Batch of 4 targets.
Target 1
Amino acid sequence: MRTPNNDTRSVKTGASPPARGRGPRGGRAASTSDSLADGGGPPPSPLPQAGGGATRTCILSREEAPREGLIRLALSPDGEVLPDVRAKAPGRGAWIAVNRAELEAAQAKGKLKGALSRSFKTGDVRVPEDLGARIEVQLQRNTLDRLGLEFKAGHVAIGGDRIENAARSGQLHLLLHASDASEDGARKLAQAWRVGTDREGTDLKGLTLPVPRTILSLALGRENVVHAGLTDARAAKRVSDALDRWLHFIGPDPGLEPCETHSQGASAHGNDVRPTEHDEEHTEGL
């Protein structure tokens, strides 16, 4: 079995500036695999379970999981520990499966530095105080970059009318809302999704992202994007994997208002609905 101690990579990456994100509404870190649009699935796992290839062991919890669901840390030439969420930095890596609160608790107690020293096989390890914030901002960027790529590929519908049409025709696989989306608008789209998948009377809903519409709009290169719907099953799975890892790390945020839009994951394959070049948001009245 491979462990963090024998992991080597050869692609260069850089560090992200510190930032503090907001957790999903509802008081917990929702998983996009909580339920499936094609009619239920396994209960959510404590860790994102992306991929089925190589596994890694968390240096703090000693829990094993597929590497795509864990977070890699790398060591800079001057001994500083940096997040490497895309696992492309050269040299030895250390992997963590814990959330931000657990990471910072271990850092405060000195356990993190000890685990990193053992993993990197050196005592010359410098852990930045804002490591948790740096990881969080990289995970957010990774998820929104993934969503932006899927939009450019024609796999994301935006605008209330387009999403509702895709939902009612059974072509919606993942429904996302900005953190400042209205509950009425989210409820209307969720109902259309339930109708389109013959799941009326169930709790099939979308997922409220821990970012407002301004950030979601920037990610997609459009103005006033409040809701987004993935209309390709494979694209929905790719976004779900990135989103699960981000939400698992940031954990619950008790400061947010409860919302009925928790989470849905990728479903069975369906027909593709491609947005036109002039997609605009029409959700303010929803």
Target 2
Amino acid sequence: MKALTDRSCKGFKSMSAYSHQGIREMSGSVEKVADALYGSGCLKFGSFKIKSGAQSPYYIDLAGLLSEPKALCSVAETAADAIKQIRVSERIDKLASIELKGALILPSIACKVDLPCVVVRKEAKAYGVTGRIAGAEIAEGDNLLFFDDVISEGLSKVEGIKPLQELGAEVRHLMVVVDREQGGREKLEKLGYKVHALARISDVVKALHEAQKISEEQANAVLNYIKK
């Protein structure tokens, strides 16, 4: 596999500089996350229509982790280590996510940090145990960490957090597996949230290219996309 061009390397340098602008990326996690996403088939390259309606040269589907236990454990362990770091200085009572993708691996993370977890349904359940909340009960004043698969524009995170806040919970920290670097982090931080990413997509493709797992063309397609 040929090396990145000088222009591509400059692109990678600019992304590296970006890491000092406030995003809380977990140290040492990039290679583990990159390997897990690539090895399980969660990270796909091509042309994909995303939620906003735009076309993307890549797509991340965390459901693929369910077919690769080692990859699932690797991502869960990385997230758990990051949560333990946060808990050194701040109280976290429960973990929360919104269906579907983040909620699929939330229990695996919760087991490793010994915290109850909560899943917010996209729509209220009309039978049995009704409402939008599944799992642990929310108590007034609970400090929740909200977990999800990726962050793009950030809007879905706000939608998922609102039902928790309506029940009296406080959500200060948001954690995602991958930051797609499309402005969502900045929007959420302006709203007062502390945003943590296990990895940024630019660093993921850099790690995969250096490991000769993806081509220069694939790496550059992603880098050019996030620069738009």
Target 3
Amino acid sequence: MIVADDGSRDVESPCVRICMIDPDHDFCVGCWRTLREISDWHRYTPAQKLALLARLEDRRAARSITH
């Protein structure tokens, strides 16, 4: 969680500044999000962001098993 200047709390973006879409799987090889998830991130509630972070961990784990 990060705290904004106004005291509100939010979930930090999973972006690691390695922005490249895997053409075979349609997600970023840096943060594991799809283009839609990347573009919609700022609209998600903190609960939605946390749920997505859990799905990203599943994607990462599934990908590492197959490679």
Target 4
Amino acid sequence: MAEEIEVKVEETTETAPEAVEAAEVAVENKRESSKNSGRRPRRDGNRRPEKVSDGLEKRMVNLNAISKVTKGGKTMRYDALMVVGDKSGKVGVGLAKALDVTMAIEKATLVAKKNMINVCIDGTTIPHDIIGKFGTTKVIMMPSQEGKGIIAGGVVRDVVELAGIKDITTKLYGSNNPVNCVKATFEGLKALRTAEQIAALRGKKVEEIR
């Protein structure tokens, strides 16, 4: 009888640590399950989506609220004009409409990104004089010496700044409507050409056209 009792004591002393460890694991699992009971499982596992920056800067240059009277009452609509650029020779302009301000800005930003162009820049200024036209608006852009800065007002400044131009002189004629001014400036920047491009079009050397 004494031998049996000793055997039982030895068995209980050997299995006690394992039982304690199993109990701790069960408690820990129960805590984890209680924490995640009210959460929906993620489709991509436990990783959070990383926000990737495209290196573009955006500016809202104009926002209009338009009210329309219908049988059901008044309905509001918003028009957003956005300019997007990387300040290194790329710029885009977008105009979009939506029933919400945030949605209008997002749509205009997407349109601006799709319409981005490469602007020809000579150092810190433009390579030559250019005239941008849209509707009744005319924007004259002229190159300036380094350090003179941007001589432009209103929305024209936003477009040339985001394009990466640091020294330029501009003059505005005709309508000063923000949409017309932005699009006229955009058309002018789109028509810029470097000396090499002009020489290639004319079939001459760069020294011959200067």
